[in-house]
TrEMBL record:
Domain of life: Bacteria
Transmembrane segments: 34-59
Keyword line: Membrane, Transmembrane, Transmembrane helix
Species this protein is from: Faecalibacter macacae
Record bears the keyword Transmembrane: yes
Protein name (record): PspC family transcriptional regulator
Length: 73
């Protein structure tokens, strides 16, 4: 039972990049490198975007003066 589950998961889940490489006629190692690099790049772009937004909010807070509302008086 365990072997059947392991064989099924290896065939259907871990063989995805190999199937794509066979379909497009690309070497499997090249496609795996591209996949890994894109995964790290998208992860890094999320952090870079976060820090850019943080910087612009910091700049906005430096120049925008918060005034009391008329209703607070």
């Amino acid at each position: 039972m365990k072997e059947q589950i392991r064989n099924f998961t290896e065939k259907s889940w871990f063989n995805v990049i190999s199937r794509i490489a066979d379909k497009f006629g690309v070497r499997v190692t090249k496609l795996r490198f591209i996949y890994i690099y894109l995964a790290f790049a998208t992860f890094g772009l999320a952090f870079i975007g976060y820090f850019i937004m943080l910087f612009f909010f910091w700049i906005k807070d430096c120049f925008v003066i918060k005034r009391k509302s008329v209703f607070d008086l």
